[in-house]
Amino acid sequence: xxxxxxxxxxVTTDIDLVTLLHALGDPVRMTLLLSYADGAEHxxxxxxxxxxxxxxxxxxxxxxxxxxxxxxxxxxxxxxRFVSLRRSDLDTRFPGLLDALLAAATAPAR
Amino acid sequence: xxxxxxxxxxVTTDIDLVTLLHALGDPVRMTLLLSYADGAEHxxxxxxxxxxxxxxxxxxxxxxxxxxxxxxxxxxxxxxRFVSLRRSDLDTRFPGLLDALLAAATAPAR
Lengths: 110, 110
Known about the structure:
homodimer, alpha+beta, 4-stranded antiparallel beta sheet, 5 helices, 43% helix
């Protein structure tokens, strides 16, 4: 039995700060980050991510940007795909940054 | 005698995280951030910012994005403009974020 496959993603040492910030500098992708912050795997169904107002292809695009920036990893299990945050990898690459971003994203309302 | 003028900028409480990340998710603007990280005021001359390969209008555009995102403040003194980092405002709005970003930007090379 082999492991589930993963979609392409940068290795930890190749995660680039500017690419990461560009990925998170979008309101939909920030919404996704906050969903993934629980550390669990999430299906790609927009309804489960609070993004039911967007087309599935739009959500898929945003997920790809996050994955290619090194923010998330996507596990392929048969016809299903499960996305989760690369917390450990991000903490290794940029210590303290993810926590600071998540704290900022949940800072008191303006 | 009145104070020097400042170009328009968001008040601290209106600094938006996604807008800030979008502003910093660009290699030229990240270069500018690192120049401004010394806390000093900088003229808008691209040559003094390591951006002599770019047209002055391009650099001005990037400076405007940073200012409108709340990253920098621009003081107008006669015909001169001086840009500096809003470190205190950013630390107030998003505690720890700027330090984490600057640490990440100067992390060991990949």
